[in-house]
Structures are given as structure tokens and as C-alpha cells.
UniProtKB/TrEMBL annotation:
The keyword Transferase does not apply. This is Uncharacterized membrane protein YfcC, ion transporter superfamily. The chain crosses the membrane at residues 7-26, 76-93, 114-132, 138-161, 168-187, 193-213, 251-269, 275-295, 307-328, 348-368, 434-456. It comes from Alkaliphilus peptidifermentans DSM 18978. GO terms for cellular component: plasma membrane. It is a multi-pass membrane protein. Keywords: Cell membrane, Membrane, Transmembrane, Transmembrane helix. It is found in: Cell membrane. InterPro entries: C4_dicarb_anaerob_car-like, DASS-Related_Transporters.
Length: 461
């Protein structure tokens, strides 16, 4: 019997209802919390859990938790919409696609260079811009390119999917996962970047090597490809004539993006920029890129709306997911859950606690594939567990990134991933069989990196 997974909104609403009902049966309780006067961060105080008077959630309060959660998460919701709108403007200039085309044109006929070069470009798009769905229109180009170079459609899909995916995992400047998770964890946005850059290098280089050696094997013996039969009927010629070229306007757009990304890095590290300041930077960058890209004021407004609307799903899921925390707070059962979970990892070394968080996030990602939505659902609890288990909050954010990112390119509940396979005409079971060794390597590397993060007390906080 085929199990149908409900829509993410419906699933979260079911969770809210279940927790509201649970407030009638689960004992209410609270931890003491203290505020660090130097940082302003509120921490759970270990060993202070106590039972309190039960406060079951009424049906009206159950529904009230949804708008209450959306209002409490308002700053993060607006943050996502502004960044989505800004990226919408930048995408409308066509500069990003032309940059990728320039890389392809420069390396055509140099098979040994095409795969790493293309994957590095896409990995940066994933790590900095959080791109995933946005590159779906490029899959046909790179599948055709891969076939023309003597590879297969799996290689063509992997160059984009695993390129963006491996960069997305580390996400050293990804506002949609790292930024939101750090904001919820109440630690400085984009802090801990050096260790994330190390994670980026380890994961991306491993991924490139996996795809590269597979592609060489297929070039020598195409019949070894899982998609050999279907690739026979596909176009195996590729011309660079149809690829767009970079213009002076595009170079100006790129210069504006690099300038403002530099301001972003400087502001985060030197001026303690947070959600409002970062949103402002992206807004200005998007508008200036639109002007430089010769978009009219009306077109800039329309593309901003279009870009924002593309992220309404993820933005609203943040507010809806916040309702889960709100209904638990109404019923005074959130700390009870934290207490029970903390007992489950009590006595474990912090490094094993960090790995357990990674595993838990991977399971959650099967049901909530939106990275920002998953952060909203899980990070409040994971942050408290980190405080209780001796794991830094920064490490708990890294565990979230690994749990969300690794399974995104193998989970059948990941929408953009399944869309990529559909474009490549690759069956999920064929991809899963091909991908599983790399997925296992990723999980091992993720566990090792989390253990290292725990040993070095990866911070701040």
C-alpha cells in the first residue's frame, strides 16, 4: 500500500492539533532560564525542570497559535520575502545564467575541466544564494552538454543538483538556512564562517571527485550507465552558439553583487548586522542590479513581487511552524518535551549528542523539506537541547544544516529534487542506487565534522 504524505501545511496543522490535545495528557513543566548579560542570549538552566499547573489548550487557543506564531516570526518571514524579491530581480537580468554559460563556453571540449568548474560555480550558488529550484531551467542545457562530452544524463543532472546541493549543505552565506537557523538560535548571523568554509571544501571536493570518476568510467564504457538505454535517443550534439554571452551590463551587475556581498560580510563580522540590516543590503543590491540590468522601474517591481511570491510557501511555513512552539508554550509542555529528549541523551558525550541531532534533523527533513520551515520547527528545541547537553548552539545549527542538506538530494519528498529527476528522465530508484554511496560518505563526513565541532567548542555560543 502506497503511503501518501500530506501537504507540509497540513502536516504542521496536524502537529499543532496533536500537541493541543497532548496538553490535556502530558504533564506541564518548565525550566528556569537565565540571560547572559554580555550577549543577551537566554539559556536553559540544566537541572531546574519542575512540574507546574496544567494549562490545557482550548480549541480557540489552538487556532490562535497560528496567527500568534506568524506574528512572532514576522521578522524572519519578511526577511525571506525581501531576499526572495531581491533575487527575483537579479535573476530577471539574466546575469546568473550568462555567468554559468560563460563557464561552459570556456571549457567546452575540455572534459577534465568541465565537471569541476561547473560544479564549483553551482556550489557557490548554493552556499551563498541558497539556489535550488531557481536553476531548474538549466538542467536541459547541462544534460545535453554531458551527453555531447560522452557522459550520461546522470552526470548532467549531478553537475547541477549535487553542485548546488553540496554548497547548500555548508551554506556559509545562505540566508534561507544558516541565516534563519542562527537567528532562531539567537546567535550572530553568519558567524562561525571559517569552519563552515572548511565544511564546504570537504563536502564539495568529495562530491566533485565522486561525479568526476563516475563520468570518466561512463566515458570509457557508456553501457555501464543506469540510463544507457534512454540516453541513446537523446541529442548528443551541443553547440555554444545558443548560449548567451556576458555583456558590459552583466559585468556591472556582477560587480554590484560582489560589492554588496562584501558589505554583508563586513557588516556581519564587524558591525553585528542582523535581520533588518541584512534585509536592507539585499534590497538595495536587488534594486541596483535591476537598474544596471536595464530593467524598468515597473519591471523591477514586478520581478520583486514574483521573486517574493516564489518564497511565500517557505515564508508562511516559518510562521505556521512557529505555531507549533506557541501551542506548546500555551500548554506549558515544550519544556517537558525538552526534558524527555535531554534524558534520552543524558550521559552521552556532547559529540554523540551532536550526531544524534544530525540524525533527528534528517528524519524531520523527510516530512518538512523546506529548509527554512524545518529550522522554524526544530531549532527552538534543538537549541535548548544543545544548552542542556554541552553542545554549542553553533554546532546545533551545523547539525541542522547537514540533516536538511544531505537528504535533500535523495529524499522523494524533496520537490525540486524530484523535479530535477523528471527533467533528466531518471527514475528515483536508479538515482538512489547511484547516489547512496555518496550519501553514506556525506553522512560519515558530517558526523566527523560535528565531532570536530564539538571538540573545538565551535562557537560563538
Amino acid at each position: 500500500m502506497k503511503v501518501k504524505i500530506p501537504h507540509a501545511y497540513v502536516l504542521i496543522f496536524y502537529i499543532i492539533i496533536a500537541l493541543g490535545l497532548a496538553s490535556y495528557f502530558i504533564p506541564a513543566g518548565n525550566f528556569n532560564r537565565q540571560v547572559d548579560l554580555d550577549t543577551g542570549i537566554e539559556y536553559v538552566v540544566p537541572g531546574t525542570y519542575r512540574s507546574v499547573e496544567a494549562s490545557p489548550v482550548s480549541p480557540f487557543k489552538l487556532f490562535q497559535a497560528i496567527p500568534d506564531g506568524m506574528m512572532q516570526a514576522g521578522d524572519i518571514v519578511i526577511f525571506v520575502l525581501i531576499i526572495g524579491g531581491s533575487f527575483g530581480i537579479i535573476n530577471a537580468t539574466g546575469t546568473i545564467n550568462k555567468l554559468i554559460s560563460a563557464v561552459v563556453r570556456k571549457n567546452i571540449g575540455k572534459e577534465t575541466r568541465v565537471i569541476p568548474m561547473v560544479m564549483i560555480v553551482f556550489s557557490l550558488a548554493g552556499a551563498i544564494l541558497g539556489m535550488a529550484e531557481e536553476v531548474l531551467p538549466l538542467y536541459p542545457i547541462f544534460i545535453t552538454l554531458a551527453l555531447a562530452l560522452g557522459f550520461d544524463s546522470i552526470t548532467g543532472v549531478a553537475m547541477i543538483l549535487l553542485g548546488t546541493g553540496s554548497g547548500f549543505v555548508a551554506g556559509f552565506l545562505n540566508p534561507f538556512t544558516t541565516g534563519i537557523a542562527q537567528g532562531i538560535a539567537d546567535i550572530p548571523l553568519f558567524s562561525g564562517m571559517l569552519f563552515r568554509l572548511l565544511c564546504y571544501l570537504v563536502i564539495v571536493s568529495t562530491t566533485i571527485l565522486y561525479v568526476y570518476y563516475y563520468s570518466i568510467k561512463i566515458k570509457k564504457n557508456p553501457s555501464l550507465s543506469p540510463t544507457f538505454e534512454q540516453d541513446k535517443s537523446r541529442k548528443r550534439s551541443f553547440s555554444t552558439d545558443g548560449l548567451p554571452s556576458l555583456t558590459k551590463r552583466d559585468l556591472i551587475v556582477v560587480s554590484i553583487m560582489l560589492f554588496f556581498l562584501g558589505i554583508l560580510v563586513y557588516g556581519v563580522f564587524k558591525k553585528d548586522f542582523y535581520v533588518i540590516e541584512i534585509s536592507t543590503i539585499f534590497l538595495i543590491m536587488g534594486i541596483l542590479c535591476g537598474i544596471a540590468g536595464n530593467l524598468s522601474s515597473g519591471r523591477i517591481a514586478l520581478e520583486f513581487i514574483k521573486g517574493s511570491s516564489n518564497l511565500v510557501y517557505g515564508a508562511l511555513i516559518i510562521g505556521l511552524a512557529k505555531g507549533i512552539m506557541v501551542v506548546m508554550e500555551y500548554g506549558n509542555i515544550m519544556d517537558t518535551f525538552i526534558f524527555v529528549l535531554s534524558k534520552g541523551i543524558e550521559g552521552l558525550p556532547p559529540m554523540f549528542s551532536a550526531v544524534a541531532m544530525f540524525v533527528a534533523q534528517s528524519v524531520i527533513n523527510l516530512f518538512i523539506s523546506s529548509g527554512s520551515g524545518q529550522a522554524a520547527v526544530s531549532m527552538p528545541i534543538m537549541t535548548a537541547l544543545a544548552d542542556l547537553s554541552g553542545v554549542t548552539r553553533q554546532t546545533s545549527v551545523l547539525a541542522f544544516q547537514f540533516g536538511d542538506g544531505f537528504s535533500n538530494v535523495i529524499s522523494p519528498t524533496s520537490g525540486y529534487f524530484m523535479a530535477a529527476l523528471a527533467i533528466g528522465r531518471i527514475q528515483w530508484k536508479k538515482w538512489a542506487k547511484w547516489m547512496f554511496p555518496l550519501f553514506a560518505i556525506w553522512c560519515i563526513l558530517g558526523g566527523v565534522l560535528l565531532i570536530i565541532a564539538t571538540i573545538i567548542e565551535y562557537g560563538p555560543y
